Amino acid sequence: MTAADPAAEGRRRADDFLTLLTAEDPAADALLADLTEVRDLVFLGAGLTAIARAEGRALPTAQRAQASTRQTNLGQLRDRSRGDVEGLRAWLRKSGEEILFIRSLHAAAQQLPG
After folding, report:
1. Any idea what DSSP says for residue 112?
2. 48, 37, 43: which is closest to 83 by C-alpha?
3. Are 45 and 18 a contacting pair, CB within 8 Å?
4. How far is 82 from 86, CA to CA, in rounded Å?
5. What are 3-20's pLDDT values in tens digits?
6. What is the pLDDT of residues 55-69, one digit of tens each?
7. Helix-strand-coil percent breakdown of the chain, rounded to 5?
């Protein structure tokens, strides 16, 4: 399904996907499986990338640099998967997991005394 505003739909799907992934809900994989058009997968990925970059910018310098490197690696995975729906789904899964990792770093930093 291609939405009238694919960027907004991609961001909405990214939020939904992260909610499901956080809850370790199998529906996260079902959401990816339901997307069959490369365009829809790419817009979901754009939403995830925007979230990862925004949340990564709030990390301490060293962690921010590491997150930036991981984003570069994810971009390379995306590029290798162009036109390959299953490859793009793997990229999206890894992108979502990266955001959860960034969020865990934020949570750990808040637990530190000081």
Report:
1. S
2. 37
3. no
4. 10
5. 479 889 999 999 999 999
6. 999 999 999 999 999
7. 80, 0, 20
